[in-house]
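Task 17 of the worksheet. Students: predict the tertiary structure of the chain below and write it out as structure tokens. Keep your answer in the requested format; marks are given for formatting as well as content.
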Amino acid sequence: MRVFSGIQPTSQLHIGNYLGAIKQWVKLQKDNQCLFWIADLHSLTVPYEPSTLRERTLEITAVYLIAGLDKSIIFRQSDVKEHTELCWLLSTIAPLGDLERMTQFKDKAKKHRKNVNAGLLNYPILMAADILLYQSDLVPVGQDQKQHVEFTREIARRFNTRFGETFKLPKATIPKMGAKIMSLTEPRKKMSKSDGEQTFISLFDSPENIKKKIGTATTDSQKEIRFNPANKPGISNLLTIYSLFAGQPVEKLEKQFKGRGYQQFKNSLSELLIEKLKLFREKKKAFEKNPKELEKILEQGAKKARVIAEQTMRLVRSNMGIS
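Model answer:
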């Protein structure tokens, strides 16, 4: 099976990105051909600084490697020109109404009222091009991206119907647990870097910051450490994080901390995160001293990705009658 997914280099990665995506990818690469890209073209749809974009791109590359994506093709989206070519070709069959109804477009248009650009509207077409370009079978995504994969499947169907069998119909895969890690301060909202420094834990946070953020994380007025997202979203979110990093079922953690207070639980969770994220902190320093190593990996990955992309585009052009 061919697996395809990626992350935008818009800001520091947090534990939600790791648990909901990257950790799942490491398992998938064992039995599948995997391509994981840095979606730098997608990140241009919202305000950004060019120097920061380059920095974040290398940072995400480092995270991929530190996490253990050593059997996958890792590359930068903008290094493979076929992404934008296929995006334009698919835009000629993409219904405008479908684009305007996309949830992410509505949300971002509301959030960035002064920057509602055409790229934001066409974002799903570029994502469809990303996925279809590699004839992807599986697309690991969070719940909020499932709509984009469904859009991709619809575009592929339209194209195949009009121009002949060309694309596979990809399938979204969503992890049963960890697909949506919630904010530390507003546990009914998804963890996001844009909501403030105290709402998330970066993969590179210092031990001091981890203790502070977990210590002040929202729980509830009760003291029972029990998993109940509907009535106890705060402690349930922390239990999910603990479970995924410790590799233990929530039920076992509930028994382990039965009769103990939230502070004891938070202290234990802090120590666990400090230990589990130690490798990210240490390896980041090593990569910062040698950024050319990361650039080399991206170049090698792009070269491999282009082989697949060019093969798909030859078929697309031929079926559309433009070559």
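Marker's comment: The longest helix spans residues 291-320. The CA atoms of residues 101 and 197 lie 31 Å apart.
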